[in-house]
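We treat protein structure as text, and this decision shapes the records that our systems exchange. We quote a single record here, exactly as it is kept in our systems:
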Amino acid sequence: MPFEAYKIYEEYEPDKFKNSTQKKVEQALDIAKKEGLVPEIKEVNIEFSEAKEIFGKDFLGPEAIKTTYGVELTPDELQEIEHIPFTREELEQAKQLGMMLVLRVPRIGEGKEAKPLTIDQIREKFSGGDTLGDPKKKKKKMFYRSKGDGWFDKEKFALEGTPKLGWGLVMKSVLPDSLSKNWDQQEEVLKNWAKQNNIDPALVKRRTPVEIVYDTFLYYGENKETLLEDKWDWTGVRSSDGYFVFVGHFGSGGLRVRSGARDGAGSGLGVCPSR
């Protein structure tokens, strides 16, 4: 096979050896990119250290989980959550919007002692009182209703619902526009909020009851600060009576769990966008 000398120079002068069709395609792509017709490829898989730098105290990762729930992630779990599924641009925007980056785990306990991390199990763990808060500002109890004394003791959402292993972005406070609106009106508020911030509305959701409990306690354990102190976050999960569950009012008497009719509304009942 004859030696093709031009290939020696192709590496150094690639444009010189492109045919006319290749050049036309590249020129068309360049123009399309400048006009915003071709989406830019976003860099993913941001490192823990970068995410922590962006969020500061609003980064709730493996250390926060150990502090609050006493759970150490296994090598397999660490490998599974190694890559944060958001770009740096998305994380920076989320921080500006008032969101926190939360790592959730579906279990409590280790090895053979591990159990699903349900609201029921969280209540049991903190049945002895506030072991997380500032010693000078401890709450009287962590849950307003103790285990065995709550309307939701036998509810499926409290006995079976667990967080999924993975990262989530959550607004730390309810959207002001979502207050005093019924459940369906809040859905429109969520869609509008997403569009205003150039986020695909399909990616924005309500948290589940156990996610709200998990996130609220995780933030409290890591930062000694209270979220949802005088507000409720309305979920998309129904209780056995068909009402949508809401969680909040994490005051000195503990976190509360209630439910309400779809067409109801309240001045303190809103929704925290979640991704």
